[in-house]
Specification:
Blueprint (H helix, E strand, L loop, with lengths): L1 E10 L2 E11 L4 E5 L6 H9 L6 E6 L2 E2 L5 H6 L2 E4 L11 H6 L12 H6 L1 H5 L10 H13 L5 E5 L7 H18 L2 E6 L2 H7 L2 E6 L2 E7 L5 H8 L2
């Protein structure tokens, strides 16, 4: 569903990603693990077209999107929840979700979205800025889902969120995949969360993928050694 081949990304003369290659299958969740500054957010921005890639290819369901602008990638099936969530604080919860439905024929939030995140139904009239960090993360995921993506990219969804809500988000992601059969790619530093949601885990270090494992074969100590400073 998502195929990335030999992706190189640079900030000016300084190369940040050195030939990243991985794929994610339909109805699979993949975690990209790594410490801060190792290239996770750069990778996600490149996948979304927020940041141009120097070379390499990205395809979604067999369609090459490597040279497409972000809005065209959305139309071809990629949705992106950036680090820090980036919701609109002065809009209501419902209005925030509707911003993800620019191309929809009927601008009504689907009931299955509220079924996945009941707290958003309860707070649909409340301003996004008045929600807790965990509720804002759920809102950002809901906004991404209403574009009906084939691939959902989540950049550090657990950042700054309390452990009980992290469990809720993991449960919601597993439910989303089961109901919608989409591909989820999540960047993460919390190993327990990655193991709750991901079928395969990759480790990124210095702009390169240096380790790959299935959930069943994960050597937790090895991955923790990559994550420790």
């Amino acid at each position: 569903m998502l195929q990335v081949k030999d992706l190189h990304v640079a900030y000016g003369q300084s190369e940040a990603l050195h030939g990243i290659s991985f794929d994610a299958n339909a109805n699979e969740t993949v975690a990209i693990m790594g410490r801060n500054g190792m290239g996770k957010t750069t990778l996600f921005k490149a996948l979304m077209g927020v940041m141009p890639s120097k070379s390499g290819s990205i395809s979604v369901a067999g369609n090459d999107v490597s040279r497409d602008e972000s809005f065209r990638r959305v139309a071809k099936g990629i949705a992106y929840v950036p680090q820090g969530r980036m919701i609109f604080p002065t809009l209501s919860v419902e209005e925030n979700i509707l911003t993800g439905m620019e191309n929809a024929k009927h601008r009504i939030v689907p009931l299955d979205i509220y079924a996945l995140f009941p707290v958003l139904w309860e707070m649909r009239r409340r301003k996004g800025g008045n929600l807790s960090g965990g509720q804002q993360q759920q809102l950002a995921i809901a906004r991404a889902l209403v574009s009906e993506p084939k691939v959902l990219l989540l950049d550090e969804p657990t950042e700054g969120i309390q452990p009980s809500i992290i469990k809720d988000i993991a449960k919601a992601l597993n439910e989303i995949r089961k109901l919608k059969r989409i591909t989820i790619v999540v960047s993460e530093q919390v190993l327990s969360f990655a193991l709750d949601v991901a079928d395969r885990l990759f480790v990124i270090e210095g702009g390169r993928l240096v380790h790959e494992t299935t959930r069943a074969d994960t050597d937790q100590q090895r991955i923790k050694s990559y994550l420790s400073v």
